[in-house]
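Table S2 (continued). Query chain:
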Amino acid sequence: MIGAVMALSPVLASAEGGGTYYDRTFVLAADQKCGLFRGPVAGALNAATLQSRGAALRGGVAEATLNATAARARYRAARVDCANPELTTVRDRVAHAFAGWQRIPRMDFIGDRATWTADRVRREDAAWRLVQPSVVGASPVRFGLSAMPNADSALSAVVSFVGRPRPYAARIVMRDPALAPRPWLTAAGSAVLPPESARKEIWSAGTAPAAPTLLAADRRQGEIWRFPQTGSDALAALDPREPFLVQFLFRDGSVATTTFEAGDFAAARAFVGLGTV
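Corresponding output:
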């Protein structure tokens, strides 16, 4: 529905087309130039634009093609007259379309193999703003953005290990774009982690007992491992088809590894960034 509302007129659209991702990128760029929207609408539009990019990548569109599409959209927006009446029409349609979208309290961002669940409901206890579940052995792991009331969210992993000992460190392992600029794709089009020489690690900044509201439903105890903001930014830059690992390191040299999917983390993070409702 939103894609249809945002379809650009022939005057504003690129002669080569470009679909939903082109349209949303154009309107975002026009907003940056002309100040079309208030903050919440612009934030919702940004989340939707990232979501359409992720959908295109999962559909097999090459990243280079999407980058070229975005460049065309921004080039067109840079040359549009802010007083163009057709731009005013597009502005009104987009603002109307996203008026309800920005008030949605929860949303699932479904990937190929996993789902990010975003939750913007205002709470009095620690809560997951964005979470993807996984498991290592018999121990549930939840990973995403957790937040205390009236505090910014933090990239976190919560694990409830069965028995002892407990890990002494945790890290995220993912493709390093500086060493492997493109995702490693199989013949079937799914992504895998590159060789270890092309990976990077982001280490946890510390651990503490996890709040009960962050635990898996059937658990009574667990630890929360928090990661720096750079980890969140790095995940947002991954291809949505890519896996990444969260590893827990033990003093006997063993490593417990669980796998997650990047999916629409970037879009979901932008959606959560709209604030609580």
